[in-house]
Automatic annotation (TrEMBL):
This is Alcohol dehydrogenase catalytic domain-containing protein. One of its GO terms (molecular function) is oxidoreductase activity, acting on the CH-OH group of donors, NAD or NADP as acceptor. It comes from Salinirubellus salinus. Residues 11-334 form the Enoyl reductase (ER) domain. InterPro entries: ADH-like_C, ADH-like_N, ER, GroES-like_sf, NAD(P)-bd_dom_sf, Zinc-ADH_QOR/CCCR. It holds the Pfam family ADH_zinc_N. The keyword Glycoprotein does not apply. Keywords: NADP. One of its GO terms (biological process) is small molecule metabolic process. It comes from the Archaea.
Length: 336
């Protein structure tokens, strides 16, 4: 089989198409013919050498978390069968700690993520496969596990309900678009930002209620406060936008942070934070039952994941170049 491997951790030019032996499933495992695998900032950070998860010793490395496809072969004691349409929940957990026993599983101390989807076939844990209804296409399914699951779990961490005003800085990437759509789904109001008027028009069509065209923190803060005091912020940018969110939100406001696109640090001022009874939560991915619920939203026609474009496996490097250039709205999906 062919894989799109990271031969060098130097950015998009480090991706090479390589041949690998076909995998064989063991007990509890399955081999999936990959129909679609979306890419994420997580993959890009690895490719750029900016992740502690993968070092040069692991090269060539096959990334790719968000796998959708058809079961090719199932090993003994596996709950799926050949021909099943499936979506992989990429969570990897110990299965024995208090969070694995009682939930939520994404707080497991040994929590990690599956890698290997940027390939024609993927060897996976059968218990992590979610059945896909015929109404859900492989490409739209592959958009769900990282971006939409992360957004949904952030909303739950923030306690977002119908009528809430929620600030989404950087609302036109994968997680940002997912936040906008899911906030609209539950009846919350959103404030989304971007430096592109064209991208803002796109998320307005997806249900974003208030649009802010700037990356300047001071301009952003003023524009958000003109709309109102957000009840919550869903922040995948971090950096200086952490303080923008805290200054914009009202008393008791909740900020949930899931990424570091704008920098490795989260900057906030202490006094307004504690005097305003605000809170900040970290959030990584979500749980398998939450992903199953998202699949249900798509199957019922309540949610249509946004895919900007698709690429054959041989053009995986081009997909990462487009991600670096930020000339996208929504998800980028590789279709081996």
């Amino acid at each position: 089989m062919q894989v799109a491997a990271f031969a060098e951790l130097t950015g998009p030019d480090g991706v090479e198409l390589l041949d690998r032996p076909n995998p064989t499933p063991g007990e509890g495992e399955a081999v999936v013919d990959v129909a679609a695998c979306s890419i994420n900032r997580h993959d890009l950070w690895i490719l750029q050498g900016d992740s502690a998860m993968v070092s040069g010793d692991a090269l060539p490395f096959v990334s790719g978390l968000d796998v959708a496809g058809t079961v090719r072969e199932a090993g003994p004691d596996t709950a799926v069968s050949e021909g099943d349409r499936v979506l992989l929940c990429p969570n990897e957990t110990c299965g024995t700690c208090e969070f694995c026993r009682e939930g939520p599983e994404n707080r497991c101390a040994a929590f990690s993520l599956y890698h290997g989807g940027l390939a024609e076939r993927a060897l996976v844990d059968g218990d992590r496969l979610i059945p896909l209804p015929d109404a859900v296409g492989f490409v739209e399914a592959a958009a769900l596990p990282t971006a939409y699951l992360t957004a949904w779990h952030m909303m739950r961490r923030a306690g977002v309900t119908a009528g809430d005003l929620v600030f989404v800085p950087g609302a036109t990437g994968g997680v940002g678009v997912a936040c906008v759509q899911l906030l609209d789904l539950v009846g919350a109001r959103s404030i989304g930002t971007s430096t592109s008027a064209e991208k803002l028009a796109a998320i307005e069509e997806l249900g974003c209620d208030h649009l802010v065209e700037t990356a300047d923190p001071n301009e952003m803060l003023a524009a958000v406060k003109d709309v109102g005091r957000p009840d919550a912020t869903l922040n995948h940018l971090a950096g200086e936008y952490g303080q923008v969110a805290m200054a914009a939100m009202g008393r008791g406001g909740v900020q949930v942070v899931c990424g570091r696109t704008a920098g490795p640090d989260l900057t906030i001022q202490a006094a307004p934070f504690f005097l305003g009874h605000q809170s900040v939560h970290g959030s990584t991915m979500g749980t398998q039952p939450e992903l199953e619920r998202l699949v249900g939203f798509v199957a019922d026609g309540d949610l249509s994941p946004v895919v900007d474009r698709t690429y054959p496996l041989a053009e995986t490097g081009a997909a990462f170049r487009d991600m670096v250039d930020r000339d996208v709205v929504g998800k980028l999906v590789v279709t081996p």
